[in-house]
Amino acid sequence: MPKKKSLWTRETPCLVCETNMNNYQFMTKSQTVVVDEWMIPHTEAIGGYESFPDELKTTICPKCLTGSNEYSYGVDDYSRFYKSPTKNNQMKEYFERCADARFHLLADEFARFEKESATLDARGNRPKNTRTRATMEKIWQNRDQYGVPFFNLIFNEPRDLVTVLVLFSMDRFYQLLRICFNNDIEPSNWEYKTMQEAVDEKFSAEKLSMKSAEPRFWYLTQNFLQSNYYLDKLIADIYNDGEHPFADLKKEYMEQAYKNLQYCMDNDDLSAVPLETKDGGINLLMAKFHYMFENTEAGDKCLRFAKNYADNRMKRISSSNQQLFVNMTDDLYKEHFAQEAEGAEEGATTEKAG
Ligand SMILES: [Zn+2]
């Protein structure tokens, strides 16, 4: 029997310029969310449904290039940035003001993957050079005439891995701008790098307080981790896992994910963690990052917290994601506290024997 379709495309007006954009949803109850070893959620088909392509995560406007990875961005409950009309209009103005900066990021990111784009285009019989900087710039200069059909052609399904990676950078732009707006940060201009530096400057100096949670740091963490996941897929596809030019980019994605997760931890913000493992999950993830960047002491502290959570607060495991969390915590704990772990097991055996 053929599988049931799970992909559902909805047209929805851009929150900034009201041009129609495609939002890709999956049918209710057609997918389940499974996390991987970095706690990144992936959808997995249930029953007779097709898998939903996670590559379609970004909803992006073909006119002003405002784009977000948030699942229901632009639809239903998310048809405005803020409930307050004044705040909402201010936010729109922010986005209008920096359309050029979004375009620069888009063009830079496509340029970064120019060689890979060419390979994928040749394979998929796409017109050559569509995504080169020269073409992009020409289109942007004449965007009133050609912008919408051109960017629709580039962005709409099926998306290849280069497009996915480029669109993820547009989500990062979106999240950073909203962080600036929420926290009264005024960078000297709205280019991505300048915004990023201004945000870092503010939050490395003054930590967020519990009262002013900022879930967008978690969205950024996820974005960088997921970007690394897609970058690995691209490397496997184009370079057969052999030598590739992306070692520095992979490192940068991980450093950025680490930094943003630290901002989340600073204010105990777990509000956005879409996991059934909450504090435990985020501490396990943090521990993995600390170890990766050789911050052993901090890693041990987070890992002990995660282990305690797994042992004492997860008595009844009700999902495969929770089971995965417990297994990963136990494995990492054994690796880092070998002696203690052995001791505990011996203790448990004695208890049973008694
Ligand atoms: Zn727009």
* Secondary-structure element order, N to C: EEEEEEHHHHHHHHHHHHH
- Bound ions, cofactors and other small molecules, one mention each: zinc ion
Strand content: 5-15%
Q: Overall 3D geometry?
A: globular
Biggest beta sheet attributes:
2 strands, antiparallel
Number of strands: 6
Broad structural category: mainly alpha
Helix content: 55-70%
Unreliable stretches covering 5 or more consecutive residues:
349-354
Mean pLDDT: 90
Q: What's the alpha carbon Rg, rounded to whole Å? A: 22 Å
Distance between the termini: 56 Å
Strand order of the largest sheet: 1-2
Question: Can you give keywords for this protein?
Answer:
mainly alpha; disordered C terminus; two-stranded antiparallel ribbon; binds zinc ion; 354 residues; 6 strands; 2 domains
Task: Walk me through what this model shows.
The protein has a two-stranded antiparallel sheet with strand order 1-2. Strands 3-4 form a two-stranded antiparallel ribbon. The chain has a two-stranded antiparallel sheet with strand order 5-6. The model is unreliable at 349-354 (pLDDT under 50). Strand 1 and strand 2 (20-26) form a beta hairpin. It is mainly alpha-helical and 354 residues long. The chain contains 13 helices and six strands. Zinc ion is lined by residues 14, 16-17, 19, 61, 63-64, 66.
